[in-house]
Design goal:
Elements (H helix, E strand, L loop, with lengths): L7 H8 L5 H13 L1 H19 L9 H12 L16 H22 L6 H8 L30
The protein binds zinc ion.
């Protein structure tokens, strides 16, 4: 075969009449002059004819029923769709959300209301941030007294 020879796929397409008239005419002129491509065409034609002569086999039964039966035997049952939730199933979640929101508002108000003159709730809310927990013993004299910069409300 030469570099100008068509590919085997093209010769097969020529054999099956799958090309345009222009391509077919061009290939036909090449096949008439090239003995190697002519031999390829003859070989493909012989193979096609031999394949056509093969006996047609039949199973004698419906294979699809066998496959369906095997699929049904191996298939896992589908999970049941989740039942629709009723309104009272959301009550605990709503109560929790309400409690969390109330606590957040309470703490947020205590932390941000310092300039409004509400000192006592602010100090009580900030007690959790003190270096020494309320009611615990002091490890040293410095530990119980916060520095003035850290605690503008005064030492306790
Ligand atoms: Zn050729």
């Amino acid at each position: 075969m030469h570099e100008s020879c068509p590919r085997t796929v093209d010769i097969s397409a020529y054999l099956d009449h799958e090309q345009s008239a222009v391509e077919r005419a061009r290939l036909q002129s090449h096949l008439a002059t090239c003995p190697q491509c002519g031999a390829m065409l003859a070989g493909l034609r012989g193979l096609r004819d031999e394949l056509r002569e093969l006996p047609e086999e039949t199973l004698g039964f419906d294979l699809s029923e066998v496959i369906r039966g095997r699929l049904a035997a191996t298939a896992r049952p589908r999970p049941a769709p989740s039942p629709r939730r009723r309104w009272f199933e959301f009550v605990p979640m709503g109560l929790g959300a309400g409690a969390a929101l109330s606590l957040g508002l309470f703490i947020g108000t205590g932390l941000t209301a310092g300039s409004a003159g509400v000192v006592a709730p602010r100090v009580a809310a900030l007690a959790v941030f003190d270096p020494v927990a309320p009611g615990s013993l002091c490890a040293g004299a410095e530990a119980c007294f916060a520095r003035p910069a850290a605690n503008p409300g005064g030492a306790r």
